[in-house]
Amino acid sequence: xxxxxxxxxxxxxxxxxxxxxxxxxxxxxxxxxxxxxxxxxxxxxxxxxxxxxxxxxxxxxxxxxxxxxxxxxxxxxxxxxxxxxxxxxxxxxxxxxxxxxxxxxxxxxxxxxxxxxxxxxxxxxxxxxxxxxxxxxxxxxxxxxxxxxxxxxxxxxxxxxxxxxxxxxxxxxxxxxxxxxxxxxxxxxxxxxxxxxxxxxxxxxxxxxxxxxxxxxxxxxxxxxxxxxxxxxxxxxxxxxxxxxxxxxxxxxxxxxxxxxxxxxxxxxxxxxxxxxxxxxxxxxxxxxxxxxxxxxxxxxxxxxxxxxxxxxxxxxxxxx
Length: 321
Fold this sequence. Notes:
Largest sheet: 6 strands, mixed
Strand content: 15-25%
Order of helices and strands: HEHEHEHEEHEHEHEHEEHHEH
CATH superfamily of the largest domain: Bordetella uptake gene, domain 1
Distance between the termini: 53 Å
Helix content: 40-55%
Strand order of the largest sheet: 2-1-3-10-4-11
Radius of gyration: 22 Å
Number of domains: 2
Structural class: alpha/beta
Oligomer: single chain
Number of helices: 11
Number of strands: 11
């Protein structure tokens, strides 16, 4: 009797596995939703829509972008926690996701509760001021901030985002106090600084079109080397600050998404990354494709989770237990 039950259980398990495999092989049979962390019209939205369109053609089903801004870019990752693990809901995973447990009470783990698909690119960052600002250089910026503690206002794409935390780290190292004003994304941030509501902005190079139009001036950039588009803007390292920030981001799916579905998504989006239309869209913002496969991206998530803990604690922003 017991042997018969074991055989029946084994047959049922094999049938379920076969059915799951067949389902994965036919994936996708309907549109896929890609949730991104920032509003329409900004560099993330523009570049990810090109990537989604490319991937949709490869997959044979549309990849529909849904904008979910706010909460420091972490809402798409949170949305995965309630989504079916079938590959039809995927999300952008910005760096801020790995800071969440250190700053907010959540009941899920950013490393263990997301199926990491692949990394696609990363932001180039910098600080800009209006073209007519009296803060002509970074030296002027720092001097004004020291003379007017807490009065130099700067905007970012949200509280606890990379632009916010990196600027606060810069301020800490320089012994200055700045006034932070958070926005939901680059489009809102650019509108505010161009409208004269803030004195400076820390952002990804979504500011590039405004700089090229002569409306904004770049005071510094945050990569290991100067950006080709802004060769006159010094890096933080050149300014004596041992900081490099490029904030890679990629795509995740719900925990438990079948491995064949993850592979299908990975292969399609990797091919989509390699198309000239995506590279051209990224180049507009001085961004480049940054590929990490599924295993490498999972390892990156683990390593970043540990590194972000150290940054949040250094800035004194960790939540009280």
